[in-house]
Amino acid sequence: MSTATYDWDAIVNGLNQYLRLRSIPIGMKLFETVEEMEAIPKIRRPKAKHTTDQIVAQARQLGWTVGITMADLVGAQCGAVIGLSPQDDEWLSGKRMAGVWFKTREDASLHQHAMDCVPYGRYKAMAVAPLTSGRLDPPDICLIYGTPGQMIFFINGLQWTGYKKMSFTSVGESACADSWGKALKTGEPALTIPCYAERRYGGVGTAAVGTIYDMLNEDKRRAIEIIAEQKAEETDPETADGNLPELESPGRPRP
Question: Is the backbone peptide bond immediately before 41 cis, with ω within 30 degrees of 0?
Answer without folding.
Answer: no
